[in-house]
Write a structure and sequence with these properties.
Layout: H1 3-21, H2 23-46, H3 54-69, H4 79-95, H5 103-121, H6 123-128, H7 134-161, E1 165-167, E2 171-175, H8 176-192, H9 205-233, H10 248-252, H11 255-274
Helix pairs in contact: 1-2, 2-3, 2-5, 3-4, 3-5, 4-5, 5-11, 7-8, 7-9, 7-11, 8-9, 9-11
Length: about 280
């Protein structure tokens, strides 16, 4: 590990710890990463010559986690409100443009960016407040550690013994050995963080191991998805937010799939208990 990556990792850990335990700091971190992720996504798309609406996308992208924090629910499925609002705003702006070339692609890509970065990442806020107090903090800590342990496992094992490419047309540097190492690290992290899970319902050892494998795999899927986007845009790193680690999207990509999946699972498991 290079010194740049080591220092950047230490900074990330410090920020995450502060964010997890202090509600306002947590929201500032989430909003900051959402803005950074959206900016990098739209920047990559602009380099392809697609006319997108980045400012509208970032504005709506910030409103999504803020609305969850303030428990804003204009409708039962409030997400539809912001999706509809964004579509109308982008459509009105498109009417003012003289050139309608790639209009459908631009509108669709803008909406996809908000869905991909902001909406998926906003599940971290939902997870933080799924249970009151320290219990919600533990849930966030569990999925962060499981997912990032998988990232570390993929890096260490892949750089050590990685020889067989996983999906070379998407990410030439990822190997089958690295993917296997990622799963092992995620399972080990889940077992270590077993006490972070709620006492009710009781989670057996095999269930925790299965959770580590499944959510670790979801993290890898998120990583590969961002690699696909970067490959299409012909970019190695989404940005230069942290030296040695790349941009914001490079940091949160694995969380974009693992966190929503973990939230939906925990919400389904805890629903009978929370409604008692």
């Amino acid at each position: 590990m290079s010194w740049n990556r080591f220092i950047s990792s230490a900074v990330c850990i410090a920020v995450v710890l502060a964010g997890i335990f202090f509600e306002t700091a947590f929201m500032l971190v989430v909003i900051g990463l959402t803005i950074g992720g959206l900016y990098e996504f739209f920047y990559m798309i602009k380099k392809k010559g697609i006319p997108i609406y980045s400012y509208i996308g970032i504005f709506i992208g910030v409103m999504i986690p803020l609305s969850i924090w303030h428990q804003f629910e204009l409708t039962k499925n409030w997400e539809l409100f912001f999706i509809t609002l964004m579509f109308l705003m982008v459509l009105l702006l498109q009417f003012t443009r003289r050139d309608n070339t790639n209009a459908i692609v631009g509108i669709s890509t803008t909406m996809f960016g908000v869905f991909y970065v902001s909406w998926l990442f906003s599940f971290l806020v939902k997870l933080r407040f799924l249970l009151p107090g320290i219990a919600g903090i533990k849930l966030v800590g569990f999925i962060l550690i499981v997912t990032k342990a998988g990232d570390i496992g993929a890096l260490l094992v892949g750089s050590w013994i990685g020889k067989n490419p996983l999906l070379p047309r998407i990410s030439p540097n990822k190997s089958i050995e690295g993917a296997a190492g990622s799963l092992v690290f995620s399972i080990a992290a889940a077992l270590i963080c077993w006490p972070f899970l709620p006492r009710e319902p009781y989670f057996a050892l095999w269930q925790v191991a299965a959770m580590g494998a499944f959510f670790g795999a979801m993290g890898q899927l998120g990583d590969l998805s961002e690699s696909l986007i970067k490959r299409d845009c012909q970019i190695k790193d989404s940005g230069k937010f942290l030296p040695g680690m790349g941009g914001v999207l490079d940091i949160i990509d694995s969380l974009l799939f693992s966190v929503p999946a973990f939230y939906l699972y925990m919400a389904a498991v805890l629903d009978p208990i929370l409604t008692i």
